[in-house]
Specification:
Layout lengths: L6 H5 L11 H4 L7 H18 L6 H16 L9 E5 L6 E4 L3 E5 H6 L3 H16 L2 H11 L4 H12 L2 H6 L3 H9 L4 H17 L5 H14 L5 H4 L4 H14 L13 H13 L7
Parallel strand pairs: 1-3
Antiparallel strand pairs: 2-3
Helix pairs in contact: 3-10, 4-6, 6-11, 6-12, 11-14, 12-14
This protein binds zinc ion (ZN).
Length: 279
């Protein structure tokens, strides 16, 4: 969802080994193939697991996975086997690692006002993977013929934000931050993917629009990482609204899920307790 991975989300990566640094050398030149992306995805998922805390609750995990599977069932054939993870973090954020590893922060689930908003976030992240945005970012770095750290530094200089933090860290989370530094086109394309796919999956695509509004309300004077990305959240909401208006209306789409989201939110609060989770 965000233009970049959470700054706090990458801070713990300091302890993660920078195994990924060797990968560009191990892979051949040219476009990142599906197989190469799978290798990269497995490697990064392992590093991310060591760098973040996953919510230890299978019910919440399953809830997120089922929404993801609904979206995927409406997305046509996919080259990857997607996996969904719930990360304990008090920042509203979500990100995708290569080959369909999708990470949703607990605060994103807590902030969602209904299931269609959460489905919008998940569909957007699937959109980045399905449209090969992550592979494109990886290729961009590789085709520049420079080392991984140098690429992250370049992203920091030109893109600012999380990449700057990531540059100091190394490891899988830093790589995830870099690979999630999407430009305007990619963000809009992922939004478009979400708005197209959500009705086929049974979810009201207005959930994406209202989540943008939720984001703006929740972030207050400290913009969420989503909001600091380009294009501006208001522009994205407007583009999504225009696309929804142009699509044929579908009756009976799900906005609320009969209190299931609220139960899931309560479970998250109980499992996490009062301790802050900001990394
Ligand atoms: Zn995004």
């Amino acid at each position: 969802m965000p233009g970049t991975c959470s700054k706090r989300g990458v801070r713990r990566a300091a302890r993660a080994p920078a195994v990924l640094l060797t990968l560009p050398l191990a892979l051949g030149c040219g476009t990142l193939s599906v197989q190469e992306e799978q290798v990269l995805g497995r490697q990064m998922a392992g590093e991310i697991r060591r760098g973040l805390v996953f919510l230890p609750d299978r019910v919440v995990e399953r809830y997120v996975r089922e929404i993801g599977e609904d979206i995927l069932a409406a997305s046509g054939p996919q080259p990857f086997e997607y996996r969904f993870y719930v990360v304990e973090d008090d920042d509203i954020n979500a990100f995708a690692a290569p080959a369909g590893h999708i990470y949703i922060h607990t605060q994103t689930i807590l902030a969602a006002k209904n299931v269609s908003e959460l489905a919008g976030v998940i569909a957007h992240e699937i959109g980045h993977v399905a449209r090969r945005h992550i592979a494109q970012n990886y290729n961009r770095q590789r085709n520049m013929g420079i080392g991984y750290q140098a690429a992250v530094l370049a992203a920091a200089i030109f893109g600012g934000g999380a990449a700057a933090t990531a540059a100091q860290l190394g490891g899988g989370l830093a790589a995830a931050a870099y690979l999630n530094s999407f430009g305007r086109e990619a963000e809009l394309e992922a939004d478009t993917f979400a708005v197209e796919t959500m009705p086929r999956a049974g979810y009201d695509p207005n959930g994406l629009v209202t989540f943008f509004e939720t984001l703006q309300q929740e972030s207050g004077d400290r913009p969420a990482d989503f909001l600091s990305s380009h294009p501006a959240t208001a522009d994205r909401a407007q583009a999504a609204r225009a696309q929804i208006a142009a699509q044929p209306p579908v009756e009976g789409l799900e906005i609320h899920d009969n209190g299931r989201l609220e139960i899931i939110q309560r479970r998250i609060e109980l499992v996490m307790g009062d301790r802050p989770r900001r990394y």
